[in-house]
Amino acid sequence: MQRFILGKKNQIALLGAVLIVIGFTGELGFQNEAVAVWSFAIASIIGVLPIAIQAYQALKVKVVSIEVLVTIAVMGAFFIKNLEESAIVTFLFLFGAFLEQRTLNKTRSAIKELTEMAPESALKQMENGEFAEVDVDEVDVGDILLVKTGAKIPVDGTVLSGEGYINEASITGESVTVAKEKGSGVYAGTILENGTLQIVADRVGEDTTFGKIIELVEEAQDSKSEAERVIDRFSKYYTPAVLVFAIVVWLFSRDIELAITLLVLGCPGALVIGVPVSNVAGIGNGARHGILLKGSEVIGDFSKVDTIVFDKTGTLTIGNPKVAGQAFYTENVEESLAYLASVEKESDHPLADAVVEHIGAPPLYPVEKTDVVKGGGIIAHANGHRVVVGNVALMEREKVHISEKARADIARFEENDSSLVLTAVDGDLKVLMGIRDQIRPGVKEVLQKLKRLGVKNLVVLSGDNQGTVDLVARELGLTEAHGHMLPEDKSAYIEELIAKGHIVAFVGDGVNDSPSLALAQIGIAMGGGTDVAIETSDVVLMNSDLSRLPHALGLTKATANNMRQNIFIAVGVVLVLLASVFLSEWMNMSIGMLAHEASILVVILNGMRLLRFKLRY
Amino acid sequence: MPKATIQLETLICPSCVQKIENATKSMDGVDKDSVKVLFNSSKVKFDFDKEKVSVADVEKAITALGYVVIKSQVK
Asked: Looking at A460-474, A558-572, B49-63, which range is the least confident one?
């Protein structure tokens, strides 16, 4: 019976509306008191039923809920034969709840879309070798699965056979198709747009990257900031306090009408719902744009950020060094390059990769007696010649003569290049190469946007030499740049910034700079969906996309503002209502309820604006 | 201690959260400090003692308050 009534709340609200219209028509149109009285009475009684049931259930678990206040108020109004009011108040309360549900679902829609992308079934290879459709929960690590065109990848796995194109939007937030073949890693929740794949399950369920993202976002949307916890504690005592206050007023004034009006006006509606609504809409917007914000505390802190510290490698630069300049001190360039390429092929140093890539594919000589000099380079014999490849220090150690011309080139390269690779064959310097990391495209615009959003200090900390770091800083317009930094130097620097009163965000890749990520008030991980990044940071930019950073900052600012607006609206409405009970003639229960329900809708609609938030410049 | 997650039909009033929280906490065998009612995702999460209480008992208590349980999970 209880559940039947609660389930029919919307129909009851509709019936209430019809009865109220009949009541008013009877009263005003036909001067028929009896019709009016009966309509209002019936509307009040059926209307209060679901509210009273909820009030009773709340009291059973020792909660003085809004329903308790409203039920007492309606019964009071009924008792003093103010049927018109009791009917309108119950109707407004039920109708308000209906509208709240509809609009709240909208604010939660962005996150719901995300969770609904979770795969539900999989084609699993059974013992007889055939593939059968099973629930995704029944897939274990090591199972072999078949994925057909248009299907979702059910787990994180590795491709065993087949080829295909996968849309990884659910992981990276970017709708780009990625080619997959044997040996490629695939992620749960991504969609196979073309082709057929057989994969082996590496991680299943909540252990998959997608599972972790969902869990994180779900936790984030309900995480509470200090301000919210205060509101929660406050509202726990607020409703009982309103009840006590109304009783006291009644005892002193003997005015039932005033007492029950206070009960309705005192409802805290918009205050408790305002902040969670902004939170869920803001986090939802972020999730749609490949930005994971870990809760409202993060939103609050990030919105106040004034200093952003970058770890240069991999964030501002591509992390893929290229040869930017070269000089030769020999007639036979081709042969020298062939020696260089032959020896560098032996090394897996990033600079060596850049050199080999730059030279292309000349004839390779057999290489023997390879000796890697730590912090220097590599020495080897190619085709009988002793080839030394490395930095200036190695050349000096090997007593290679460096001519005046070469010294000038070295100085010139050092001025705008990061690293030098010198090549000597049989003790004579032949080739000099300058290798430089490239700045990521679009980074400059990103930093300008951040400045416009009010970030005062943009700092780069790097393990590279000061010259390289200065160059990047000049090119990008950073405010400070420090090179030769070890991880512990970086964290010490951040500690210093915080001690000076700055609100610091640290942007890193989340692998070797986790102390700094943890130390800064806001740790921003540029994780291509990696677990470490997701776990150690406060904000994750999916797909390592720095261009999301301004949107993230703008969004947190807008969300924090939105929360303040909602608190202001909620508190303002209650104060105005309470003041007008005592100061004005026109205030009554119905108007109070109307104002309350309206303010709840206003804060929800206000929160919903965040779903459409976009950076304007 | 096993962890339970109960998915409820969409919650709309924050006072529901308080009711469900109090009801769940009042059950013997549920670890009071672990009870979390998530308003936006409409979920109840808690740790419990298998000897004293079952997830079905908690579900029953929540249903008695008038909220619909969609599914539950224990791990």
From this structure: A460-474
If you write DSSP's letter for every residue of B17-66 in order, what string do you get? HHHHHHHHHTSTTB-GGG-EEETTTTEEEEEB-TTT--HHHHHHHHHHTT
**Alpha-carbon separation of residue A310 from A14, A145, A483 (angstroms):** 58, 41, 12
Q: Given B13, B26, B38, which is nearest A222 (Cβ)?
A: B38
Which chain A residue's Cα is nearest to B20? A61
A85 with A173, same domain: the answer is no
* pTM of full prediction above 0.95: no
Structural domain of residue A398, as residue ranges?
322-436
Strands A307-311 and A504-508: parallel
Residue A67 sits in the same domain as residue A144? no
Query: With b meaning 16 or more CB within 10 Å and e meaning fewer, what string describes A402-440?
Result: beeebeebbeebbebbbbbbbbbbeeebbbbbbbbbebb
Question: Considering only CB atoms, which residues of chain B are within 8 Å of chain A?
Answer: 10, 12-15, 18-19, 22-23, 26, 36, 38-41, 43, 64-66
Nearest CA in chain A to B63: A3
pLDDT tens for each residue of A303-319: 999 999 987 655 777 66
Cα–Cα dist A567/A611, whole Å: 19
Domain B3-74 maps to which CATH number in 3.40.50.1360, 3.30.70.100, 2.130.10.10, 3.10.129.10?
A: 3.30.70.100
Domain count, chain A: 3
Tally A–B CB contacts below 8 A: 66
Q: Are residues A103 and A123 in the same domain?
A: no
Separation in Å, CA of A325 to nearest CA in chain B: 56
* A311: annotated active-site residue: yes
Q: Looking up tokens 């929160």, which residue turns up?
A: A607
- If 0-12 CB within 10 Å is exposed, 13-18 middle and 19+ buried, where does residue A603 land? buried
Question: What confidence category does residue A174 fall into, taking pLDDT thresholds of 50, 70 and 90?
Answer: low
CA distance A13 to B13: 17
B51 vs chain A: nearest CA distance in angstroms?
24
